[in-house]
Write a structure and sequence with these properties.
391 residues; five-stranded antiparallel beta sheet; alpha+beta; two-stranded antiparallel sheet; 13 helices
């Protein structure tokens, strides 16, 4: 994207590439071609954008009586307080006009005092600055000294000295009008309810001034837990930080949708386990079904433990893999149980010997069948691109 005084280049990395290594290579490539940068370009800003930067919770602050400027000021205070919620990341405010101290120059008054716009600009930039000015020791203490200060009000800007004429100071109020108000509108944000909004007919027919608050989470954290913490924090602010005449609507809650999808997969997993146990119980008996019922949670526990050691989280992909693997998981125990059941029916040996004999008979084919399944799925480890993590 290119426009006057700005150029934006979007670089997309291939799926599966190491993020840190790719960023280092990108920095290195830019540095090696810095000689091609035309004069006037002050520098480059490399800003990584990841999937975790996408907000998981969106709040909409709307009101029938408060202006968009008032809504934004409340939203900015809410955003500052949401930073204390554990594992939150990028938090932003969308919509509304921010506060702005505007200086409207009177060119006639400025020329009459022998000043120009550059001098006014330099005076404003130099006065709105605070820098360290050294330190000194006194009574076994090291005291830091800072020079200058930031503007705290429009009155301070109004009383700024921007020059001298005939030995008299020239204040900014002599050549300009300073107002502490809202910025000019460059976007409009409105909020209204549809037929399924679950609100009164009056609210459904109206259109409200609105400001949106978007909250993202840190990488690798639980979206469900972070979303619940953020929503609870906003609810505690209602009536205090958020006035009663400003209403809050949750317009996006990825934690809720993720929790619903995970619970749905867990439900299917439970249904699959119960179905397998029911078939074994019907065909062989309760003892055989009990063996399968014990083997499934033991092997699943070991699988989840190994996943945890390797850094895999519980998500829709891993849960779907567990559902898929259930059929493979119960194959071996069912083969063992069926052969043990057959030997018990023949009653040629004591129970312990019958179990050992039955397992010895089927152990080689069971091991070979397991190896065959492993070999058939092994090529999926080498799939690259977006399908790699899924496989």
């Amino acid at each position: 994207m290119s426009r006057p005084d700005l150029a934006v280049v979007t670089v997309r990395f291939y799926v599966g590439e190491d993020r840190i290594a790719s960023l280092v290579k990108l920095h290195n490539k830019i540095k090696t071609h810095i000689d091609l940068v035309p004069p006037g370009v002050s520098g480059w800003v490399i800003k990584p954008v990841e999937v975790d930067d996408v907000p998981i919770v969106n709040f909409t602050l709307y009101s029938a009586t408060v202006s968009d400027h008032g809504l934004r000021r409340v939203a900015e205070e809410v955003v500052d307080r949401l930073q204390s919620v554990h594992n939150t990341s990028v938090t932003s405010v969308i919509g509304g006009r921010p506060r702005q101290v505007r200086v409207d120059i009177d060119p006639v008054a400025l020329a009459a005092r022998g000043l120009d716009l550059l001098e006014v600009r330099r005076a404003l930039a130099g006065a709105n600055l605070e820098l360290p000015a050294g330190h000194f020791q006194r009574q076994n203490e090291d005291l830091l000294v800072r020079g200058g200060s930031f503007f705290l009000s429009a009155e301070e800007v109004d009383g700024l000295v921007i020059g001298v004429q005939n030995g008299q100071p020239v204040y900014l109020r002599d050549v300009a009008q300073v107002t502490d108000d809202m910025a000019e509108a460059d976007q409009y944000t409105r909020f209204r309810f549809g037929p399924a909004g679950g609100v009164s007919a009056v609210d459904r027919a109206g259109e409200f001034q609105a400001v949106n608050i978007a909250v993202a989470k840190k990488k690798g954290t639980n979206a469900v837990v972070v979303a619940k913490g953020v929503i609870e924090a906003v609810r505690q602010m209602q009536g205090t930080i958020i006035p009663d005449d400003i209403r809050v609507e949750i317009t996006r809650n990825y934690g809720e949708t993720a929790d619903h999808k995970v619970n749905e997969l867990i439900t299917h997993l439970v249904i699959a386990v119960v179905t397998v146990l029911g078939l074994v119980l019907f065909a062989l008996g309760w003892r055989e079904a009990l063996i399968v019922a014990v083997s499934i949670p033991i092997i699943y526990s070991l699988t989840l433990l190994i996943n945890y050691w390797f850094g895999y989280t519980i998500n829709r992909v891993t849960l779907f893999a567990l559902v898929l693997a259930l059929g493979l998981l119960v194959d071996d125990p069912i083969v063992d149980v069926e052969n043990i059941y057959r030997h018990f029916k023949m009653k040629k040996e004591p129970p312990r010997d019958a179990v050992l004999t039955a397992i010895d008979e089927v152990r080689p084919p069971v091991i070979l069948a397991t190896l065959a399944v492993i070999l058939s799925f092994l090529p999926m480890l080498f799939i690259t691109g977006m399908m790699g993590p899924y496989m």
